[in-house]
């Protein structure tokens, strides 16, 4: 069984997606589906070249700041 070799940046994006998915599970049950749809849409809406490291790093920083806001306990639901 061969294992896919990923760059450090690819691994960072995948790990960030997992962190976002875990954060969704901390939200109220009735809002989790909306949060999950939002996470998916945010990851899919941008078509960035895998070679555009600057843009990927920028989007990761932006996403991490956005996650900090949505992880706040006062945020109970999302409307996209």
Q: How many angstroms does the end-to-end distance come to?
A: 41 Å
Alpha-beta classification: mainly alpha
The amount of beta strand, in percent, is under 5%
In total, the number of strands is 0
Largest sheet properties: none
Average pLDDT, all residues: 90
**What is the number of independent domains?**
1
Return the string of H and E elements: HHH
- The low-pLDDT segments are none
Shape: elongated
Radius of gyration based on Cα positions? 14 Å
Number of helices: 3
How helical, in percent, are the residues?
55-70%
Write the layout of secondary structure elements.
Elements: H1 8-24, H2 29-44, H3 53-71
Report on the architecture of this protein:
- The chain has one domain.
- It has helices spanning 8-24, 29-44, 53-71.
- The model has no long low-confidence stretch (mean pLDDT 90).
- It has 80 residues and is an all-alpha fold.
- The protein contains three helices and no strands.
Give a summary of the structure in a few sentences.
With 80 residues, the protein is mostly helical. Helices cover 65% and strands 0% of the residues.
Attribute tags:
single chain, 80 residues, mainly alpha, 3 helices, 0% strand, elongated, Complex1_LYR_SDHAF1_LYRM8, chaperone, mitochondrion, Complex 1 LYR protein domain-containing protein, Complex1_LYR_dom
């Amino acid at each position: 069984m061969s294992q896919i070799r990923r760059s450090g940046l690819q691994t960072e994006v995948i790990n960030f997606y997992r962190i976002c998915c875990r954060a969704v599970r901390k939200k109220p049950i009735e809002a989790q589906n909306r949060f999950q749809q939002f996470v998916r849409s945010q990851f899919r809406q941008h078509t960035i070249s895998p070679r555009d490291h600057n843009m990927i790093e920028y989007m990761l920083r932006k996403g991490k700041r956005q996650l900090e806001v949505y992880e706040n306990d006062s945020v109970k639901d999302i409307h996209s």
